[in-house]
Design goal:
This protein is an alpha/beta fold. It is 50% helix and 12% strand. Strands 2-3-4-1-5 form a five-stranded parallel β-sheet, sandwiched between helices. A three-stranded antiparallel β-sheet has the order 6-8-7. The two termini are 24 Å apart. 36% of the residues are buried.
Length: 347
Amino acid sequence: MTGRISVRPLLATRADTERFVGRTAELTRLEANLEAGINTLVLAQRGAGLTSFLNRAVYDLERRSAGELEVVVLPGEVARSAADLLAAVADRVTRSAPPRPASGPDDRGAERALGDRGAAVAAPSGEQEGARLLAATERLRQAIDAAARSGPTVVVIDGLARPEVAHTVFGQLRNELWQIEAMTWVLGGAAAQRGRYLEPPADAFWESVIELAPLSADELGAIVDQHDLPESDPGSRRELIAAAAGNPLQLLLAARAAAQGRPPDRRQPDPDLGESAARLMHYLQTQGPASASDGGLLNELGWSRGRAQQVLKGLEQAGLVRAELAPAGGAPGRPRKVYRVAEPVHD
């Protein structure tokens, strides 16, 4: 096998969409849902290509709509609470909306009021949580109303660190969200948390649920072909496809291991550890060892240092990572605690 094997998700670009494999039926169904304004929950196992799927859907949607539809994409990890999520969506909608035409002082006053309301939402003082959520919802409504001048808005959220955030927003606040016209939601989430996402009353909000099934052997083979597996070694090809068990990330990790002369690592975080553990494990597998204070890790996952420490500790207790001390980046000071994926035990 030759060349560098990348395991990053495919982006919403022409080059990456040409590499996208499979999911035709799921893409067609999501396209029909969005044309009909149907809120859709997309569920996938870790490594099944959820981000790539959503990016492909966004790429297709933007080109079909020819500017008549506003598409806003948000990585859900940035939201640690329901109010955070609503505020982040409102910010993205506001930034992506076309500039407003010059107008009188009334409109400028409305813009200032919107900013003031956003500041109030962010303030953590003794304000009641219910009031914060309603204020955040009203701010989102104003942002959508402003953006509606150029057409409806589709909001695509790629994963959430805490499924309870989704339950609060799309369950407790579902009636308020239903009142915001010209807005359709797509939420990508972990299949292992299906019950949390669809716990009543949120089940009524998601009018359609699409679950990404394992890829077929032929589809996995098409991905293998993109990474220059020598045709003279069909045995290796079969081994990689078998090791993947329908999961594209596992296929690429197995291919990377094979390129380095190692057997594939089939270990997965316990589903009970949650989606956050899976995301962090993926980061360590693909990017290498990291500490809880590494800027790259924190930016990639949208976490605080404390959150990273908490999840790393859980992975360490599960035996999936191990900690070691490393010099503090060549600078004076105490060594950092760096975590790396623990060596697998092969049969």
